[in-house]
Amino acid sequence: MLYNLVNIELLKIFKKWRSYLGYLGIGVIVAIVQVNLYLHGDSYVNHLTRGLSENFFISGNLLNGYLIAHLILTALFNLFPLSIVLIAGEILAGEATAGTYRLIITRPVSRLQILTSKIIAGAVYTFSILLWMFIVSCIISLFVFGSGELFIFENGISVFAQDDILWRFALSYSHIFLSMMLVFSLSMLFSSFVENAIGPIIAVMSILIVMVIVSQLPFDFTQTIKPYIFTNYMSDWHTFFSYDIDWNLIQKSVLVLGGHSIIFIIATIIIFLRKDILT
Amino acid sequence: MNTEKIIEITGLTKKYKKLIAVNNLNLNVYKGDVFGFLGPNGAGKSTTIRMLLTLINPTSGNIKIFGKDLTEHRKEILAKVGAIVEKPDFYLYLTAYKNLEILGKMSGANVSKINIMEILELVGLDKRYDSKVKTFSHGMKQRLGIAQALLHNPELVILDEPTVGLDPHGIKEVREIILRLSSEKQITIFLSSHILKEIELIANRMVIINKGQTIIEGEVKQLLSNDNDEVEINFRSELKIQEVLSTSIFASHTFSVTDSQLNINLPEEKIPQLIKTFVENNCDIYSVERKKSLEDYFLKITDEK
Q1: Within chain B, which residue ranges are assigned CATH 3.40.50.300?
Q2: How far is A231 from chain B (nearest CA, A)?
Q3: CB within 8 Å: A277 and B108
C-alpha cells in the first residue's frame, strides 16, 4: 500500500506546474552562467587569477566543467530552499485548501501511511531537484567546457586533480540533500498547522532568512546563539572542497541537520494524527 | 425491519473548547435502511458525519459500524464505506478518471479500468472521463463525488447533502441512484440533507437532531402519521362551504375559508369522508392537497425544542 501511496503523491507533485518552477529556475540561471562564461570566460579567469599570474605560471584548462559546476553550486545553493518550500509548504496544507483531505482520510489507509508517503515523495522530489542541478551544472558544463583540475578560490587557493573531484561533489550534494530535507520537514510541520499553503511557504522562508541574518550579526549575543541556529550548518558542504576535510564539523552538522529534521517530522506526525479535519 | 445494526452511536460528544457541537448523541442505523439525518444548520450533522468517517476525533462516546468499534477497526470498516462529505472536492489538475483511479487504489479494492468507466457511466460522466476536473461544473463534481463513493462497492454509503447544486434532473437521477443502491444492492444509506422532501421521498427511517442531540428517531411514515394533516381544498365558489362544514361531522375541526379555498386540519383517514361530504352537498371540488409534510414536522419539532 505504501508503494501505491508514494506513487500517488509523486503523481500529485509532478502533475502541478508549480513543481517545475524549481527545475526551470535552476535551468535558466545555469544556462545564463554557462553562456556568459562561454562568451566572456577568459576575462573571468583573468579576474580570478589576477594576483597569481605575477608569481605563478598557470597552464591548462582552468575554465573547465568542474570549476563552473562549483561556481554555480555556490551561487545557487540559496535558491534550493525556495524550490523545496514551494512544494513542501502545500503538501499538507494544499490538501486542506483543496478540501481533498476528506477524500483521502476517509479511505482505509492510516494517517501515518499518508504522511509517510508524502515525506518519501518529498524526499524524491528534493533528490530530483539536486540531481537536475548536478546534470545541468556539472555534466553539461563538462561536455561544453571540458575537464581539468578544479581551482577553488576560498580562503586561499586549493587545486584538486581531476580524479579527486567527483567524490567531493557527491558528498557535497549528499550534505545539501540533508539540509534540504530539514527545510522540507520544517515546511511540513508548518503545513500541518494551517489550511493554506501560502502561510508555510512565507513562514519557512522568513525563518531561514532571519536565521541567516542573525547568525551573521557581529554581536556577542548572536555569536553565542550561533551554534544553536541550524542554518549555520547548512553551508558546511563547502568543507568538502578543502584539502583537510574537517570530519568533526561534518559529523556535527549531520547530527544537527538530521536531528532537527527528525524532530520536525515527529512533531508533524503528532499534530497530523490528532488533527481534526474541518475543511 | 432488519435488526442488524450497521451504525450504532452511543453517547457521542464533540466539544470545541466551550462549544458543544454534538452532545451525547445516540442513534442506530439498520441494514438496508435509507436513513435520513435531519437537523437545522449548526445542529451537529456534519460534525457527526465527520466523526463517522474519522475526520474528527470524538471527545467522548462510542461509534460502532458493522458491529465493530470504529477506533479499533478503522481500516477494516472504511474499506466498506463510501462517502461524500459536504461539497465534492477533487484534485482539479487531474482528470476525472485519474481522480477515481487514485481513490480506487487508496480504497484497497481491486478497481479496474472497466470498473471506473462503469461507475462514470452510472453517473453520466463517461464521455468526460479524460477531462480535468477543473473544467467540471458543480453538478458534475457532485456526480463524480457519488462515483468515488461507490467505486469500491461499499456496504454503507454516507451522503452529506448529495444533491446540493444539482439541477432538478440531476436531483431526480441521484434520488434514483440512491433508491437503486438500496433496493438492488442492499446498500445501507446514511443520508443527510437540507431538502426535507428528499428525505420524505427516499428514507424509510430518520432522526432529527438539534443542538447536537437526538430529538426524535423512527420510521418516516410513522413519524408523519402521528399528527393531523392540513388539507387544502379548492372550489370555484366559497358559497356553501362554511355551511356544509358547520353542519357536518367536521364542524369541530380547525378550518379557514379564503377565496374559495378551504384549509382544514384533520387526520389522514378522514380525508375521503370530507370529500364525500362536499360531493353529496353538490360542492364541486377542483383540487385536494395534503399540506402536511416532513418540512412542517421538522419545523414543528425543532421549534418545540
Answers
A1: 5-224
A2: 35
A3: no
CB spacing of A106 vs B98 below 8 angstroms: no
C-alpha cell at A3: 508503494
Q: For the domain with range B5-224, which CATH number is right: 3.40.50.300, 3.20.20.150, 3.30.1360.70, 3.40.50.1220? A: 3.40.50.300
Work out the average pLDDT over B51-75. Answer: 94
Written as nine digits, the cell of B273 is 369522508
Inter-chain residue contact B50 with A5, CB threshold 8 Å: no
- State the smallest CA–CA distance between residue A107 and chain B in angstroms: 5
CA proximity to A41, closest of A61, A70, A25: A61
User: pLDDT tier at B87 (50, 70, 90 boundaries)?
Assistant: confident
d(CA B120, CA B106): 18
Closest residue in B to A98 (Cα–Cα):
B89
- Closest residue of B to A99, CA-based? B89
Question: Is domain B229-303 in CATH 3.40.50, yes or no?
Answer: no
Give the pLDDT of residue B304: 61
Residues A114 and A104 sit within 8 Å (Cβ to Cβ): yes
Q: Are B91 and A106 a contacting pair at CB < 8 A?
A: no
